[in-house]
Structure formats: C-alpha cells, structure tokens
C-alpha cells in the first residue's frame, strides 16, 4: 500500500511533461500572436521586436519549450492579456471557487451514488424506482439539469439562490481564497453557511450524472461480490444480510467505484465550467470564457495545465484509496 503512492507520483511526471508539450504545441499552431496580444496590433516594429525578444520567441523551438517547461514548473504561466496580471495570480483567485464547487459536488456524488447502489443491490422497497432514476440521471445533460433546478427550486419554490457565490458584499477574500475556509478563519459562520447555501443547487446539478454512474457500477459490483464464496460462507455462519453487505461485500466492491470516480472527475471539471456560467459563479468557468472570447492563450494554457494537474493528482489519490480498500492493487 505504501509503495503505490511513490510509484504513482513518479508516473505522473512524464504525463505532466506531455501535457505541457501539448499546450506548448497548441500555442504554436494557434492563429494567435502572443506578441500582438501583449503590445497591441498597432505597436511599432521596434516595440514588437523588443517584446518578441522578451518573450523568447526569437529562439529555437526546443529552447522555447525548455524555457516554457521550466517556467511552468516554477509557476510562471505568463501574463493574461485580459486582466494584465500574472495567470498564476488569476488562478489563485478563480480556481478556489471552482474547487469548492467540485468538492461539494463530489460529496453529493458519493452520498447519492452509494445510497442508490446499496438500495438497489439489496432490493429495498422502492428500489425499482431508484433504478429508473439512475438510468434517467445518467441521460440528463448537465445544462438541462441546471435549468430544471433553477425552475423548480428558485422560480417555483424560491428556496435556493441561483447566482453568485454569497449574498454578503463584505465576505472575506483571504488568505486562502476558499470562502468556506476564510469565513471560518475570520470568525464569520454566517458567511460559511451562506456559501454552502449558494453551493447546494449547482453542486447537486453537477453531481447528478456522476452519481447515477456510481450507483450503477456499485450495484453491479455488489451483486457480483454477494455471489462470491466468502459471502456464501458468511451466510452459512448465520450473519445478517445487512452486516454481510456492509462488512464483507462493500469493501470488496468499491475498487471499480473509486476508478469510476477518478474518470467522472474529468467530466465534472468540464461540466463545472458550464455550471459556473449558468449560475454566474466567479470561478474558472467565468475566467476561461473571457479568455476564449479575447483569445488570451496564456490564460487558456494556464487553466488547461491547472485542470490537468488537478486530474492527475485526483487519480493518484483514487489509486491510493483503492490500495487501501484492496491491498492486492499494490501488487
């Protein structure tokens, strides 16, 4: 189990290098002139050449890639042509908002998915309705779930907000830029609960499709585990079905679920941008939409690298949890 983490961390290094290479290649083939974006299209030839030399674009491609890689490792992702500030500084402001949404959505995914999987695998009363809900939830596009959620919980019931991150105009902005954490550090629990209140609907809409997938995979895995020899032995010893399900079957069935959660996270990150735009949350969805609109490639590349790093680290964490649940994975 302890050998899994170092191996996965070493294996992540070439993956991240290939990701940087892909972003660098896209920057070179994209029809965007980074020099013109920095100094303006009407800059004089002298100013243009000076900026080109400053950016290192007059060097060979291998040398340019080496400089890009070393700067990326140091966190230097260039300057945004929209905000005129370093991309890393923008990410520290916008990314925590997205990570909060992903974290709450992941909690919803685990709770709803495990509940559906356990209920349908045991054949609880109403499990047939839950099976229909799992199939329906897996086929509902995220934008439709958001629109239906806004219509039901805001327009008709008026119980959940649908815009912004909080209702407090003087909410804390530091030191971590995670409002859930900063509000507690500032001793303002009302801001903490208000942020959670604003997170419920977008996180629930974001979690619907992954939760349905988790429920279906967990149900299939539990049904296969309950037919295994060790489960039949537990029944022969007179153990109850609930104890067999929780103690003997669940741990041996969560391996495929952890693997699926790692894959679903990539889907959630992509959908998160759309959800943030629909609910007007100031996360990387808002940031990258402005960057795409203004052809700000430094910002686009920075978001791409940040999301790629997040995905790699999450899959490492998933592999580690799999090794805890099933020590055979470490072999």
UniProtKB/TrEMBL annotation:
Domain (ABC transmembrane type-1) ranges: 95-322
Family affiliation: Belongs to the binding-protein-dependent transport system permease family.
Transmembrane segments: 9-26, 101-120, 132-157, 196-218, 257-279, 299-318
Molecular function in Gene Ontology: dipeptide transmembrane transporter activity
Keyword match Endoplasmic reticulum: no
Membrane topology designation: Multi-pass membrane protein
Keywords carried by this UniProt record: Cell membrane, Membrane, Transmembrane, Transmembrane helix, Transport
InterPro entries hit by this protein: BPD_transp_1_N (IPR045621), MetI-like (IPR000515), MetI-like_sf (IPR035906)
Name of the protein described by the UniProt record: Peptide/nickel transport system permease protein/dipeptide transport system permease protein
Main location class: membrane
Alphabetical list of PANTHER family matching this protein: D,D-DIPEPTIDE TRANSPORT SYSTEM PERMEASE PROTEIN DDPB-RELATED, DIPEPTIDE TRANSPORT SYSTEM PERMEASE PROTEIN DPPB-RELATED
A Gene Ontology cellular-component term: plasma membrane
Cell membrane keyword on record: yes
Gene3D superfamilies: MetI-like (1.10.3720.10)
Cell compartments where the protein resides: Cell membrane
